[in-house]
């Protein structure tokens, strides 16, 4: 699949699976209270993580999705975010966990958290599979982080480059020839 486009496997399928179980256990341990957790997955990148994470949780959770898009250049976030698909339900009084695939600049999430907080959930936390170093420059309170990764272009397990590679079962670094060839 995608022959030659992937320079290296950064996080294997096995490592992802183990980390998803570990994160699910942590989140479950921290939420002994009654009532289902409400997971909010951020489309499209978080879709693989969201479905695996929900199935790894030992207690029931409900699944909601939002789709957002940054205005401006497609390669860097501008911090101005537009809602493409909003939640279907009111989250007031719910224990909400935002599920993200990656926090890069942190701008998407920082905007999203303010937006969700204004809807008065009982609690609002973030679980992200990946985080890049630049994310720490924006103050985004993230309770659960799977892997801190170097500042390289990564794809797979939901993460895309120009909408491709989301279907890879692992996370890999993209060979620079893919984005420099102008194909
Ligand atoms: C990616 C990724 C995060 C966001 C992180 O989504 O899935 O949602 O960027 O970037 P930031 O921390 O710099 O804001 P993208 O906007 O590419 O949409 P997608 O999930 O549909 O691929
Ligand atoms: Mn995304
Ligand atoms: Mg993307």
TrEMBL record:
Top-level enzyme category: transferase
Q: Where in the cell is it found?
A: Cytoplasm
Tell me which EC number(s) this protein carries: 2.4.2.8
Which superkingdom, per the lineage?
A: Bacteria
UniProt main location, coarse: cytoplasm
Q: Keywords on this record?
A: Cytoplasm, Glycosyltransferase, Magnesium, Metal-binding, Nucleotide-binding, Purine salvage, Transferase
Matching entries from Pfam families are given as:
Pribosyltran
Under catalytic activity, the entry for this protein gives: GMP + diphosphate = guanine + 5-phospho-alpha-D-ribose 1-diphosphate; IMP + diphosphate = hypoxanthine + 5-phospho-alpha-D-ribose 1-diphosphate
> Does the keyword Glycosyltransferase belong to this entry?
yes
User: What's the cofactor?
Assistant: Mg(2+)
The terms under GO molecular function for this entry are: glycosyltransferase activity
Question: Which part of the chain is the Phosphoribosyltransferase domain?
Answer: 14-161
Q: In which pathway does it act?
A: Purine metabolism; IMP biosynthesis via salvage pathway; IMP from hypoxanthine: step 1/1; Purine metabolism; GMP biosynthesis via salvage pathway; GMP from guanine: step 1/1
Which family does the record assign?
Belongs to the purine/pyrimidine phosphoribosyltransferase family.
Under what name is this protein listed?
Hypoxanthine phosphoribosyltransferase
This protein's species is Saccharopolyspora griseoalba
């Amino acid at each position: 699949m995608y022959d030659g486009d992937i320079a290296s496997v950064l996080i294997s399928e096995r490592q992802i699976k183990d980390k998803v179980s570990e994160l699910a256990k942590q989140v479950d341990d921290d939420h002994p209270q009654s009532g289902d957790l409400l997971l909010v997955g951020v489309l499209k990148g978080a879709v693989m993580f969201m479905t695996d994470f929900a199935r790894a949780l030992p207690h029931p959770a409900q699944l909601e999705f939002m789709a957002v898009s940054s205005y401006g250049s497609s390669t860097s976030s501008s911090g101005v975010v537009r809602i493409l698909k909003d939640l279907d339900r009111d989250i007031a009084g719910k224990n909400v966990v935002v599920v993200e695939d990656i926090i890069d600049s942190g701008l998407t999430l920082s905007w999203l958290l303010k937006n969700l907080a204004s809807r008065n959930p009982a609690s609002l936390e973030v679980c992200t599979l990946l985080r890049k170093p630049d994310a720490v420059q924006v103050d985004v309170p993230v309770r659960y982080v799977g892997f801190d990764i170097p500042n390289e272009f990564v794809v797979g397990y939901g993460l895309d480059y120009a909408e491709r590679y989301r279907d890879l079962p692992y996370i890999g670094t993209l060979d620079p020839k893919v984005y420099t060839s102008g194909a």
